[in-house]
Amino acid sequence: MATRPEPPANPDTAAELAAHVSQHPENWMFYLRNMDGHAAALEEENATLRAAGRHHDSAISTLQTEITKRDAIIGYQKEQQNERDERDIERTAKAAEKIGRLEVEKIEKKLAALSWYSLRETNRRPQTR
Question: For residue 27, which of 8, 17, 100, 127 is within the disulfide window of CB 3.0 to 4.6 Å?
């Protein structure tokens, strides 16, 4: 930002100002031209800042839209993961149940074999009378 030009004097009253302007017209003309240039530079800087602000607002809007899209994608992916997890849990539970049934069948077969073997051994022993 350009530095604001300083007036040639800082009179307290209108009469003092009029007197100073009439005594130093070149100084005041130089000051007024510099103030005009300063005002133009401020207007240009203001326009540039407003344009930058609009650009940033647009960029923020674009980023907010992107965030919304990504949040939706993340939400969908979480749903998909939860569904996969539920299917995995169901498969694991079914597999554990099947393993349990097979273990029971295995034990029942062993018991049946032991019973058959015991019965056979009992029948093979000579009976004493």
Answer: 8
pLDDT tens for the chain, 129 residues: list them.
668 999 999 999 999 999 999 999 999 999 999 999 999 999 999 999 999 999 999 999 999 999 999 999 999 999 999 999 999 999 999 999 999 999 999 999 999 888 877 767 766 666 665
Residue type, position 96, single letter: A
How many residues are present in the chain? Answer: 129
Q: How far is CA 1 from CA 33, 52, 53, 98, in A?
A: 17, 16, 17, 80
What is the value of pTM for the model shown? Answer: 0.51
Q: Which position has the token pair 């694991």?
A: 92
Helix/strand/coil for 2: coil
